């Protein structure tokens, strides 16, 4: 079985695959202080609930945008599962796509993994919108290669910034208000973030399409808030919440053979 680990800025996702079948999926808050021992105590108990023996893990793959988490995650694989993890972004790891940037090593591993999965599932050209700690817009050309993108603050991060920087503004959840003009502070904040991000999505998608001369360029969304924004704008064609994990599985299979 394969242990796939996707370490983001906010959450780290652990998934177990038997072939192409996902046997388990768990999330933990990303904490670079969490040791390999702590990871294993937590993960082994969750695996036991799903009746997955830890001895069944014979391979691992890691994607992380948090360099400080890498040591403990690779140590987890080495010490407790007795495998050397394949790490996305390391030399020699074949992604199956080209990264057409001045410095390809600058691109976050999660964005490359998403591009790999999107090429297989949707072909190209595409815009991939990932609603994470940051909201990213990544452009895939007709050959399925990564050509660049846009990085903006995430919706939750923006809401937290308002709360932290303005003494009288509360911390509220990101959701779609019933009307644009808020009748109280909470409604006004939710409107500013939600409809502000709708305008951000629609504006950037339109500008990317115009710049590339591809007016029908499809946009696929992923990440925790993707379903929330998908229903409020025609700029997003589909939501695919499993994009990153499928990309990790594909990269592992490509490099295991």
What is the compact description of this entry?
The chain is of the alpha/beta class. The protein has seven helices and ten strands.
List the helices and strands and how they pair.
Elements: E1 2-7, E2 11-18, E3 21-29, H1 36-49, E4 59-64, H2 70-80, E5 86-87, H3 109-122, E6 126-131, E7 134-140, E8 146-153, H4 155-165, H5 185-212, E9 218-223, H6 226-230, E10 238-239, H7 243-256
Parallel strand pairs: 1-4, 4-5, 6-9, 9-10
Antiparallel strand pairs: 1-2, 2-3, 6-7, 7-8
Helix pairs in contact: 1-2, 3-7
Can you put this structure into words, describing what you see?
The chain is of the alpha/beta class and 257 residues long. The chain is built from seven helices and ten strands. It has a five-stranded mixed beta sheet with strand order 3-2-1-4-5, with helices on both faces. A five-stranded mixed beta sheet has the order 8-7-6-9-10, with helices on both faces. α1 crosses α2 (70-80) and α3 crosses α7. The two termini are 15 Å apart.
What are the main properties of this structure?
single chain; 257 residues; alpha/beta; five-stranded mixed β-sheet; 38% helix; 23% strand; globular
> Number of helical segments?
7
SSE topology string: EEEHEHEHEEEHHEHEH
> Which regions are unreliable across 5 or more consecutive residues at pLDDT < 50?
none
Our Rg estimate from Cα atoms comes to: 19 Å
Query: Distance between the terminal alpha carbons, to the nearest Å?
Result: 15 Å
């Amino acid at each position: 079985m394969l242990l796939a680990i996707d370490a983001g800025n906010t959450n780290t996702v652990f998934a177990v695959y038997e072939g192409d079948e996902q046997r388990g999926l768990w999330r933990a808050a990303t904490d670079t202080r969490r040791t390999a021992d702590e990871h294993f105590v937590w993960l082994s108990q969750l695996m036991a609930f799903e009746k997955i023996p830890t001895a069944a893990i014979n391979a691992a793959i890691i994607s992380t945008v948090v360099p400080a988490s890498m040591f403990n995650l690779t140590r987890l694989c080495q010490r407790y599962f007795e495998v050397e993890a394949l790490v996305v972004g390391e030399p020699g790891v074949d992604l199956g796509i080209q990264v057409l940037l001045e410095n390809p090593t600058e691109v976050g591993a999660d964005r490359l993994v998403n591009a790999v999965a999107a090429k297989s599932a949707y072909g190209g050209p595409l815009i991939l919108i990932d609603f994470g700690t940051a909201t990213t817009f990544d452009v895939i050309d007709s050959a399925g290669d990564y050509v660049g993108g846009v990085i903006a603050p995430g919706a939750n991060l923006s809401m937290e910034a308002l709360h932290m920087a303005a003494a009288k503004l509360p911390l509220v959840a990101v959701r779609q208000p019933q009307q644009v003009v808020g009748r109280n502070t909470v409604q006004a904040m939710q409107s500013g973030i939600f409809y502000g991000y709708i305008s951000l999505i629609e504006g950037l998608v339109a500008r990317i399409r115009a710049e590339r001369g591809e007016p029908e360029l499809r946009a696929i969304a992923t990440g925790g808030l993707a379903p929330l924004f998908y229903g409020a704008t025609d700029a997003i064609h589909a939501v695919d919440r499993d994009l990153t994990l499928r990309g990790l599985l594909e990269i592992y299979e490509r490099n295991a053979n």
